[in-house]
Amino acid sequence: MATAAREYITEDLRKNREAAKIFQEMLPEIKQFAEAAGVKVIVCKCMDGRVQTNNHKGLPPTFAVNLRNQGNIIDIDRTNKDYWDSVQEVALAARDANLPLLIISSAHRGVLGSGCAAHKKEYHETSADGDRTALDSACEQAQRLRFEIRNDQNFPAFTTVIPAMTNTDTGGIQLFGTRETLFFDGDAMIESYAHPSDVFAETFKTPPISEEWAQSSIKGKSVRSLVDGPHAPYFTDMRVKISLETYLMKNIRASGGLEGIASKELTAINEQLTHIPENIRPFLTYVMLTNMMYATHYRNENEQLRQKNKNNITPALRARVSHAEKKLGYGTGFDLQEPNSVILVKPGGGNDATSLGIGRNVLLQNLQEIDTYHSLPPIAHINIQVEEPICNKHQLLNILARMRTKLKILERVFEDYEASTGRYVRVVTTYSYHESVDPAHIGGPTKQFFPMNPDPGNPRIMIDATEDIGAGFARGSAFDVNKFRERERRYTREGLDEIKKIS
Fold it and tell me: Is the Cβ–Cβ distance between 141 and 44 less than 8 Å?
């Protein structure tokens, strides 16, 4: 089991190194997207891996701040320090930049696949009880947030809170004013569309994209060629995805709406959004446009997978719409993880142990249902995201202390599993740098996971002494910033196997 866990972790970290490199290259375009969006965004959502990314909303990595917990059941009492620290930080940034703030309180459901485990329901075509419970919870959260921030001077004057529901089968979202007022339904809007490009106006989707800043990724292709087909570049290539999203957001901002860009159906809905503040409306219409494109693509993929068996869910279709996570993530900085790959618990829900317990149950069930159950143990990934280069021993010890705190909570959550099976949960412990850190001052791109062991000798941890970037510095040795930075650089270039070559 240890061998299987190590192989999985090594491959997972390799994918992260590749994604982090691309992210760093595309960061200038993500900044262009943010400028065109003209809004700060917080998304409160479930820890379910199927809603791990904001792809279905067309949001580039790190653009929105995601607050995650089981079923999006977050304690929003002012005593929940972690939650309000995150919310207030975004609110102050919005106010300082004279930008509006949009908070999306999101639930999720499934029809072909399962729904939200935190709301204690399996969702099938014949039952909507759990869907209703999940949506009620999101709407209640939105209402409480509106009340809490109404008289809070730290929030921008234009702060909007919107409840939402995501269909994890397609990524289609529903947007609500109140529980009773649905103003956008992505799945319903695309019923007459055969292809993702059908969401665009004909005159917009056909011409080649000629913007110079986009040539390295889009290379003069049309919107239609980027989004149509089972292997469309927009859905498979991070560079193309970010570039096209930036192109669309900039065009919507420049035109002041969707006229000449989107289909007539969506343009008509946009004109009815009088209840949305005018300075938020361009961004929200962008979200609706990209969601329709996304939902059309994955609806088509689902239909293709069940083509030979219309009346039943084929194994391939079930695999696509169901839980497939093979690890439990705990902490922050998981922005580049692949969809449906990690059940993510982000501190701030109010009780990390409760959230981790639900995540553990989902993870163990996933492992029972895949062929590798007897070889792949439950895997947990602790990551500490830091906001300045590590340059001294105090910083290093602070990171190690935070890792140890999370490790002890994980050990308690998996205590009954370990006692009953005689197997350890396997844990990978890493740190990463926030995207605001200048990459010139660190040994790799931001958002890259760097392995570090907070508890040598703990049999659960899969980072040994030869792979530990912090080895030796925290236990008696003087901190050598140059040697530390060289370890980061070597890991960035060559990965786990080569760290052990560093003296």
Answer: yes
In the chain, domain spans: 187-322, 377-499
The token pair at 261 is 């860009």
Q: CA 3 to CA 246: how far, in whole Å?
A: 42
In the block, tokens 């491959």 appear at 11
**C-alpha neighbours within 13 Å on the C-beta side of residue 177:** 10
- Within 13 Å, how many C-alpha atoms sit on residue 211's CB side? 15
Q: What is the distance of C-alpha 496 from the center of its chain?
A: 25
Total count of residues recorded for the chain: 503
pLDDT, tens digit, 9 for 90 and up, residues 308-354: 665 666 777 777 777 778 899 999 999 999 888 888 887 766 678 88
CA distances from 302 to 107, 110, 173, 293, 322 (A): 21, 13, 17, 15, 12
Angle at 238 between CA 21 and CA 382, to 5 degrees: 60
Residue type, 205: K
Please name every residue paired with 428 in a beta bridge, in sequence order, or none if there are none.
381
Give the separation between CA 359 and CA 327, rounded to whole angstroms: 9
The rounded distance, in Å, linking the Cα atoms of 137 and 141 is 6
Cα 28 from Cα 338, distance rounded (Å) = 22
pTM of the model: 0.91
* Separation between Cα atoms, residue 313 and residue 113, nearest integer Å: 9
Residue with structure tokens 């909507």? 128
Amino acid present at 80: N
Could you count the other beta carbons within 10 Å of the beta carbon of residue 331? Answer: 22
DSSP state of 175: E
